Amino acid sequence: MPNETIKHIQPAFEDERGAISNILEEPVSHIAIITSKAGAVRANHYHPEQIQYIFLISGSYESHSKDLKAENAETEKVVVKGGDLAITPPMIAHAMKFTEDSVMLNITTGQREEENFEEHTVKYKLI
Q1: Are strands 60-67 and 41-46 parallel, antiparallel or unpaired?
Q2: In the predicted model, is pLDDT for residue 105 greater than 90?
Q3: What is the pLDDT of residue 17?
């Protein structure tokens, strides 16, 4: 089973006015919009308890991930494109290398308070 699940989100409804795409039907505690320039590297961390959902609105990136629960786990790489939802479970180290200027929604199941950042986001160098 892959470390991360990638789902391409299709419109649930479409007419002459436009489209409606349902991204996620799970309880969440935090949503942020993040922009990244081509060549930028983000993440290089893992979350001990939280699930992270990344909905890539536009652009693309290489997602690198490693299961920290599995002994001798290999690093996996997958390309994420605009319209994709990447789901990263707890204890999966992950990093993103952006291949295009990108806009994404970062959606998590827990709060992202700055004062306790190291409790929910632990640095882990993958790339």
Answers
A1: unpaired
A2: yes
A3: 98
Upper half-sphere CA count for residue 61 (Cβ side, 13 Å): 32
Q: How far is CA 45 from the centre of its chain?
A: 11
Report the CATH number at residue 99. 2.60.120.10
Least confident of 1-5, 15-19, 75-79: 1-5
Beta strands in 1-127 (DSSP E): 5-8, 13-15, 18-20, 30-36, 41-46, 52-58, 60-67, 76-81, 84-88, 92-98, 102-108, 122-123
Q: How many domains does the chain have?
A: 1
Q: Token digits for 35?
A: 């922009």
Residues spanned by the domain of 18: 5-123
Q: If 0-12 CB within 10 Å is exposed, 13-18 middle and 19+ buried, where does residue 125 land?
A: exposed
pLDDT at 55 over 90: yes
In this predicted structure, the answer to whether residue 107 has a pLDDT above a threshold of 80 is: yes
